[in-house]
Design a protein that fits this description.
Keywords: DNA-binding. There is one protein chain. The protein has ten helices and no strands. The radius of gyration is 20 Å and the shape is elongated. By secondary structure, the protein is mostly helical.
Length: 211
């Protein structure tokens, strides 16, 4: 997988890397690669799955709720998305060319967004349970909206040859959009959040107020 990913990153946009080139880069015979995969489609699905795992890993590291305020966590996470998209444009593009192993019926980018939304939803639902708020489906809609909005906005910015916003302006802007969504959902559940306090402190206060 590493050999394939390295070659995809080096290839011009839209150019498919031949299997023989992947095999040579990995120091393998082409026949060895074909014995491991039923064909090109299976190889590409495996590559997209590997790319997805790397992307998700970077984003989940940024989502560490034990480190920072809500604002800092949102900024850090959006920053991680911007970093990944700008540093790996060919991999990001490759995710849109077909499915991963996760779901054969949708492209890998859609699967990636669903995976990130599910991971974030589990985190939000867990926090809601800690402070005594029942999950009514809002977490599902909220996390998918934030994840899909962030990916689409960052991608549009990255593909713009002359973006109006600087990198830092984009990060702050998208993080503020995400905060307004989170704040709005929290208020509908009767919760008042402070975006600048450490999230662990906010959770402790909400638990205390609920007793």
């Amino acid at each position: 997988m590493q050999a394939a990913i390295e070659l995809i990153e080096q290839a011009p946009p839209g150019v498919e890397v031949p299997i023989v080139q992947i095999a040579e880069h990995a120091g393998l015979a082409k026949s060895v690669v074909y014995r491991q995969f039923a064909g090109r489609d299976e190889l590409d699905r495996r590559i997209r799955s590997d790319i997805t795992d790397r992307f998700v890993g970077d984003i989940e590291d940024a989502l560490d709720i034990g480190d920072g305020s809500i604002h800092q966590i949102l900024v850090r996470t959006v920053d991680a998305v911007v970093t990944w998209v700008t540093e790996h444009p060919r991999l990001h593009e490759f995710l849109r060319t077909g499915p991963s192993e996760a779901d054969p019926d949708v492209d890998a980018m859609s699967s990636l967004i669903a995976t990130l939304a599910a991971s974030t939803r589990a985190l939000v639902t867990g926090l809601a349970g800690v402070v005594g708020v029942a999950d009514d489906g809002s977490a599902d809609a909220m996390t998918f909206a934030i994840v899909s909005m962030t990916e689409a906005t960052v991608t549009r910015w990255a593909n713009d040859p002359a973006p109006v916003l600087s990198r830092q302006q984009l990060i702050e802007e998208v993080a503020s959009y995400a905060w307004h969504v989170v704040d709005g959902v929290a208020r509908r559940h009767g919760l008042t959040l402070d975006a600048e306090q450490p999230l662990t402190t906010v959770i402790t206060q909400l638990m205390t107020n609920g007793d």
